[in-house]
Write a structure and sequence with these properties.
The structure is a homodimer. The first copy, chain A, is of the alpha/beta class. Chain A has 13 helices and 7 strands. The N and C termini of chain A lie far apart (40 Å).
Chain lengths: 309, 309
């Protein structure tokens, strides 16, 4: 296999900061990514939790340029590049490859529903051929609850046969362990990342590659540490702690809740901003969240210092 | 009310032709639009049936420029401009307004599911304020089966209160007459277009504005004629004929089926091309469709001549 090595470990679908006029805030994003990378957490920027589909291709290119321009290592970047329109996907993907990103996380086109595996195969195929670069490494993005366009085992099998050096892994956000187990069994060497850290230990025990999870925005060190030390005697205990934190966030609108937490622990209220159609937490939701986190003794060490730098 | 008059009658979500390399084919689109306009059919270009969400913003701008540049009347154009990302929606909408389009058809942002009316209100609001042009007339686009993001009566009520001169109508592709009847009753003067000509007569009898329907690509003259003459004694008979044709197309993947019909009746096989994730009809599906159309004595008069011009 030529090009970058397969990615592994923990990546964060980094939340995206906005300025008061809702334009993207590259400087805050760079600082947040430094904080995550210092905790051994890779950068799956432009994921669902990044509000990536609320950003234009131009904005994503601007942010990716800012990240690499600030010296963050593209070998630890897996930007989301899948859009509804092939030209958009090709443009952003080619740019990510040019900047040296080790991989891209690619949603299928998600407007039309009930499309066939043949249509999705053609879609990925067209993108791969147009990008036309052997450094391109695609991680498929299976998130049926949101995209409403599933990536079936049959489709993966066909893509692996046609593009074995390019289609190298998947983020599975279905929450369905049966599907993940089937992939691990059927596609040896295919890098499988559950989209939720509650399945991290189980996944590592069965040959998974790591995880790409929303709450890696909040709890990166603990999640990365478990991924690195999943054979440690206290691994299950660590997994259980992690799940408790996840439960708190998951009971709320997840993206606004993570932004509220980052705003609180960084001391920078600007982080609360979301782009419509999302809405920030209500005052009551926010107070409830912070109370629960305090009760847990939760902290985000170093965040305020990094964001103030 | 300042700016363009409210639109009415029949509009076609014009199917989009592609060249062999799948790039957009402005010349074929211009000719198709001439054929539709000559049959009293307005141009709801960039609708679902136009594969609009498989086109980049740049491609849509290029096509819109080509249409107005060819002398087609923007007073009869209602391009689809709603995208997932506000900057994309604003860019295309502002361009359509600048070109003089009488209205735009605006999907809500459709990636995130389960979003609140508050979030959707903010989304439309942000677009309206950024475009900042009193000539802007928005027709909301309610298509829950595909977008998975419904536009509720509560949201419409709030938008009408805040932007009475801008939010002027809706295309309702829910197929749910109860919802359409409720809008006609609750929002007098709001231009309601069913997204399907099978509800055209019923809608006209209850104060509807016309219809915006896929099969207006195939059957524009008959549909436009019924909209204009819905009080004629044979109106129900015409409606029934129309429904028969619709049934044939609806039994197949609709967009590829319409493209196959246009390819056949124009004598121009290039029309069969679709962009992934869609797939053209199989040979058997196509033969079956054309047999059924022949049996009905169906034709698309003038199409071959217009496309050859």
């Amino acid at each position: 296999m030529s090009g970058p090595e397969k990615m592994s470990g923990v990546l964060s679908p980094v939340i995206t900061p906005f300025k008061a006029d809702l334009s993207v805030d590259a400087e805050r994003l760079v600082r947040q990514c430094r904080w995550l990378m210092a905790r051994d957490c890779g950068l799956a920027v432009f994921g669902t939790n990044s509000e990536a589909n609320s950003l234009s291709v131009e904005e994503k290119i601007e942010l990716l340029d800012a990240l690499t321009g600030a010296g963050l290592d593209p070998a630890r970047m897996m930007p989301g590049t899948g859009a509804c329109a092939i030209p958009d996907t090709v443009r952003l993907t080619a740019h990510a490859v040019k900047l040296g990103c080790s991989g891209v996380l690619m949603l299928p086109p998600f407007y039309y529903k009930g499309v066939s595996d043949e249509g999705l195969f053609r879609s990925y195929s067209e993108v791969i051929q147009r990008v036309g670069d052997e450094r391109l490494k695609i991680y498929l993005y299976h998130f049926p609850a949101v995209s409403q366009v599933p990536i079936t085992l049959t489709l993966i099998e066909r893509l692996l046969k046609a593009y074995p050096d390019t289609v190298v892994g998947i983020k599975d956000s279905s929450g369905d362990w049966g599907n993940m187990a089937a992939m691990l069994k059927q596609f040896p060497g295919f890098a499988m990342f559950p989209g939720n850290e509650t399945l991290l230990l189980k996944s590592m025990q069965n040959g998974g590659a790591g995880c790409i999870s929303a709450t890696a925005n909040i709890n990166p060190a603990a999640i990365a540490d478990l991924a690195a030390n999943w054979q440690a005697p206290d691994a299950q205990e660590r997994q259980d702690d992690m799940n408790g934190l996840r439960t708190i966030f998951q009971a709320l609108p997840l993206i606004p809740a993570m932004k509220a937490a980052v705003a609180h622990y960084s001391g920078d209220a600007a982080w609360e901003r979301v782009r419509p159609p999302l809405v920030e937490l209500s005052a009551a939701e926010k107070a409830g969240l912070l109370d629960q986190l305090e009760e847990l003794g939760f902290d985000m060490p170093g965040l305020a210092e990094t964001q103030a730098a």
